[in-house]
Structure formats: C-alpha cells, structure tokens
Amino acid sequence: MTKRIILIATAIAFASLTYAVDFGAELSNEGGVRKGEETDFLAEHSLALWLTTPIGSGGTTLSVEGRAVAEKEATADEYELWADVNLFRFSMALNDRFGLDAGRMPMNDVTGLVLAQPMDGAELHGTFEFGNLDASVGYTGFLNVRAVDVLMTADDGADDAEDGVYALGAKRLVAKVSALFPELFGSVDLAVEGIGQYDLRGVIGEDGTQTAHTGYVTASFSGELTDGLFWRVSATAEMGVLDDGTDTYSITSGVAVARLDYYRGAKLHVSADCLYSPGNDSTFTEFVPISFRSAGNLYEPGYGNLIRPSLSAVYAFADTLNVDASCAAFLHPKKVAGADGMYSATEISIGATALVFSDLRFRLSTDLLLPSGEDVIVQASLTAIVDL
Amino acid sequence: MRKVKLLAALALAIAAIAATPLAAQSAATMTELLAKERADYSDFSYLVASSAGIEASPFEAYMYCDQLGSFPENAMPNGPITAGAATFFMMKNYGISGGLMWRLTGAPRYAIREFRALDLIDPEVDPAHVLSGRELIELVSAFAERFPDATLREAEVSDVSAERRKAVLKTLEGTK
User: Fold this and answer.
1) Cys staple from A305: which of A279, A301, A309, B60, with CB 3.0 to 4.6 Å?
2) What's the complex ipTM?
3) pTM, whole model, 2 decimals?
4) Domain ranges in chain B?
5) Which CATH code for domain A38-293?
C-alpha cells in the first residue's frame, strides 16, 4: 500500500498552496576568543523575530523581521546593545508580468560588492520572454547605522560611531535598474546593471563636511563550462564626485572579478576567484561602494586598491555536518604608505556546521590572519542557533 | 497542454492502482480521493490505516485513528483536514523524534516545521491550509518514503472520551 501511495504521488503534479500567517523566532549565541597582540573575548547574542501574513485577498503579503542584539567585539571593552527592523516588505503581483515590493527590504547589486543592505523604497520586477527587468529606488536615512555600514565619506564614519540602540546614519537616495538575459549567447547569461547614488546630506538635515555622489555600471557574464563547472566574470565601473566644501574631486574606479565554481553532487563545492580593484594613481581613485564590507573575516579594509585571489571549499559529510575551508591573499596594486611591497596579508579560515536537530545548529569557526610585518591574529568562535 | 499532461498523470495514477492486486473498492476510493478539492479526516485516516496494513473503510479507518487522540477536539470524519493536523498526527503517532522544540513542547507548530525541515512539504505552506486529495497523497507518500520503517503506534481505546465517541457516531448516523 505504501509503495502504491508513493507511485501515485510521483505521477501527479504539485498543486498550488495557499498561505496565511506564519511567525517564528531565532535565537543565536556566539562566544569566542581572539588572540593578537593581546587576548580578548568576543560575544554576540541576538534574538530575531519574523512574521509573514497575507494582506487582503489579492495575494499581497507582508513580511516583517526584527532583531535585538547584544554584542561585544574583540576590540571593545563592553557589551553594546542595538535593535533593528531589517525587513518590512509588502509584496504584490500587479499582473502576470509585473510584481512590486515596497517597504524596507534587502537590495543587492549583481556582484554584491556595490550594494548589499536593506533599504526603504520600492522594487518593480518584470518578467519577459527575453529575460527579467528590475527597477528599484531606496533611501538609507532611516536605517540603523548599527546594522548597516554606509561609509562613503568622513561624515558617514562619524555617524557610524554612534552607540545608540537605534541611530540614524547617512541620508542617501539610491536608484537601480538591472536586466538579466538568460542564455543570451549559447549557454552564457548576461546581467547588466546601473546604480546611482545621490548624497542628501545638507538637503535633508544638517550640512556635513563632505558629500559624495556616485554611479556604477556593471556587466556580468556567466555560464557552464562542463558538467558541474560554472564560470562568472564581472566588471563594474564607478564614476562620481566628492565635495569637501572647498574642492571637488572626481571618483573614477571600478572592480572586476573572475570566478569558477565546481559542484560535485550536493556534497562538494569548490570555488576559486580573483578580485581586482585599482588604487589611487593619475587615472583611478580607490573603489567606494555604497555598502561597505571588509574584504576578509579578520582582514578589515574594504575592496579599494586590492588584488585578492581566493580559494574555498565546502564538503557535506552528511545531511547534518559540513566542513568548509578557505584561503585568501590580499595584495595592493598601488603601494600603501609604510608597506614594504604589494603583499598585505593572507587569511585562512576553517569551519564546521553541525545540524544537531532540525531547529538547532552549531557553527565552529576559526580564522587565521597573517599580516605583513604585524602580529598574527587568530580567532575562534562557537555559535549556537535555535529556531523557536 | 498543461491540462493534457495532468490528465495523463491522473490516468497513469489510476492505471497504477488498477495494476496492483488490490480490491476494486480501494482503487475506487483512491481515484475518488485524487479528484477531491478538500480532503477530510477519513481520507487521511484511510491512507494511514492502509499504510499500516489495516483493511478498512475510510470511516472505520477514522474511528481507528481517532482513538490515538491526536486529532483536534472538534475534528469530524467529514471535516476538512489541514496541513497542520496531518503533520501533527504523523509526528505524534509514528515515533518521529523531531527537532529540539518538538521534543520540548510537542506543539503542532513544530510538527509542520519538522516536515518543512525534512523537505516533506512546501516550506511556505500554512498549517491552516486545507489539503486537497492529491496534496494529501503527496504528503503521506513523502512521509512514507522518508520513514519506511516508521510504524503507527497501537491505539488505546482509553485515548478517546465517551463523549467524543458519541459525537463521531452521530456523524455516522448522519451519513446513513
């Protein structure tokens, strides 16, 4: 009988399902040690609450996610507390072709190097025979600087130093248009994207000492080389102006990435990539993204003036355990003041994630940073995450 | 085209039933269930009892499963069965250990979450979603495939109150 039921189920199509209110919570606790010149402990405890609910009967849904965090960074002496609403999104289908998201939601560029953060705004998605077209607009001024790093000017840096539970930061208007053309040339996919960012400091709120307006254009090509082996090449050009009140400077920069991904079933994933971003010279300035991210786990600088070759692998031993390892080197194409040469640092990371129960997982991670001419830094931490 | 494919799939399913050495009555019941927009507790019980090797009508199967005491208080044989009720019944009566919160609380919300985590049900389906006949078969078969050795626990008559038995028997009288 059991076999008969399975046989029938595989012969029938999936039916559409209706959705209603759902909610939950995630409790995460991390504790660890960092050893550099000194030994410090670090910790982060967070409680995230989420909710999804239909609004009306037209298929509109509301998704909300918020969290409260108590963290002690290795370099800090005390715990800091902050809270954030990182998702408050209404999603609706306008017709068969167009969908609209509005509210606070994550916005990303195709590379993840320019824009990767929540934003208050709207995003229109279009699905066509030739591919997808998306257009979005967002504002950063209501975001909590404790949760989002927008560090384009010295004033942004001053805002970021705020230690309130909810502190407002950079006021920027961001617009994005992107197009994805799947299998445009044979098996090659093309994504093109344009992003513009306008600094509203002085227009809204107090004047700052600096304002920066930037634009980015990205082209990304990707495809499959052989069974399980995929490639991606992307190039982003950045143009803009930085005004410090007395002078205006041009921003001319970019970032390029070449990447290979190899999948062997669901067990093994190996990737190798190389990132290049120019340094300051007579032609280029350093790359300034909208969303600041460190280029490594322990390596703190961002993606400006950087060559970063890296290799990483993830292996799943079973449904409940996977291990990962990565290695990256950081080099400066333009020599930095005080440095001996191009080489800056190497970072090695090893980690393991164990799914003890379907709603409880542990993550052990260790990072080793070998900086040029400085002390080695080692960090190890254990995180427990439970879904309530 | 999609309709043709669906009809072909249904024809295959019916042919699969006909090809097995089962009573014509069972094949007819399954065919009927496939076409149902809203499956009920007796349909679910019929699948559960059949999986356990119990030959019974859907109503007899319901009476058997109801004795396990895992159906909601207001459940009736012809009442629509939800994803939450079906997953809770299976977690509760097949000895599935489940996640940490299920072990700690045994609450229905953690039963459906276990099914989601094990990829036995659409991760976004709501517990209150009323299952169609096809969805019910899909759910029970996914469970049977994932836990081929799971066995239904023995029913104890004492699990069901006399009042509840009376209420269910009234439903039976109503259907006669």
Assistant:
1) A279
2) 0.72
3) 0.82
4) 24-175
5) 2.40.160.100
